[in-house]
Amino acid sequence: MEQARLLADIGGTNARFAWQAQAGAPIVDVATLPCAAYAGLEDALREILRRLGRPAPKRCAIAIANPVLGDQVRMTNHHWTFSISALQARFGFEQLKVLNDFTALALALPDLQPDELRQLGGDAAQPDAPIALIGPGTGLGVSGLLPDGRGGHVALAGEGGHVTLAVCASREQQVLAQLARRHGHVSAERAVCGQGLVDLHAALGTIDAPGDVAPALTAADITAAALAYSDARCVEALNLFCAFLGTVAGNLALTLGARGGVYLGGGIPPRLGRFLDASPFRERFEAKGRFRAYLAAVPVFVIQACQSPALRGAARALDGA
């Protein structure tokens, strides 16, 4: 127990926990709890320790879908809020590291194995070049790795999912207008996340059939219908989703100079399979005028790891990465 670590990857929907006996040891006892079932993070931590049948270890790392700017953490896409120092005191952690979940995922990218990735276009990744990371799930996470000049990388902690969304066609402009009526500022996350897919589908319904009462579909419903090509509006909504993701990912690649590759994380991309390949994603990723050839060479990798890689990144954070 002296070297044991409790690791957590907290998203807006699910909280994943795991145990690591010491630095470098396998990550084991992975368990997922639904965030909505617990009043706060403290309750979820107590539940996972009860299930493990272990006392709190001395070390804990928590990757969370939220900016971590000080002692008080308030989640963007969930109601949990907590004080880092109070949480540390309640559980007696000697070391508690709290970091953004996509910063943690970025730290894990060098550890991903070939069978945990699927390449979607582009050439080989350039060594010692910046790497970009973007991923839609409950929200839209963004991070990256920048070379540190010593053979390693520095992970970025930002909120790139909230950049203003750009559109490239009149149909998209109509959809954007519908989203603006609902949200005011239309960030990338407003379209490129689970709820965003629902809103895209609803916007298309309003444009094409004003006054009609459309059935209430979840993101999973829309995705399933689109993947089966059983509903034209669901197919269009998911294609719009992929197009917007491609636009934002291409912008990120240009901003970081990400010739080391762009990684697609989050819960949604691995579920799309070959639909993503046939979607407008790659065309929109490269559609940057004079820099089309530059982006055409940049590889995109879909992360399809069975175990949450952010847990590995959380472990790296405890190691001082």
UniProtKB/TrEMBL annotation:
State the EC number(s): 2.7.1.2
> Among its keywords, does the record have Amino-acid biosynthesis?
no
Q: Please give a single GO biological process term from the UniProt record.
A: glycolytic process
Catalytic activity from the UniProt record: D-glucose + ATP = D-glucose 6-phosphate + ADP + H(+)
User: Could you tell me which CDD domains the record lists for this protein?
Assistant: ASKHA_NBD_GLK (cd24008)
Alphabetically, the GO molecular function entries are: ATP binding; D-glucose binding; glucokinase activity
* SUPFAM superfamilies on file: Actin-like ATPase domain
InterPro entries this protein is in?
Answer: ATPase_NBD, Bacterial_glucokinase, Glucokinase
Which Pfam families does the record match to this protein? Glucokinase
One cellular component term from this protein's GO annotations in UniProt: cytosol
Q: Where in the cell is it found?
A: Cytoplasm
Give the record's keywords alphabetically: ATP-binding, Cytoplasm, Glycolysis, Kinase, Nucleotide-binding, Transferase
Q: Which family does it belong to?
A: Belongs to the bacterial glucokinase family.
Xref: NCBIfam families: glk (TIGR00749), PRK00292.1-3 (NF001416)
What this protein is called in its record is Glucokinase
Species source reads: Azohydromonas caseinilytica
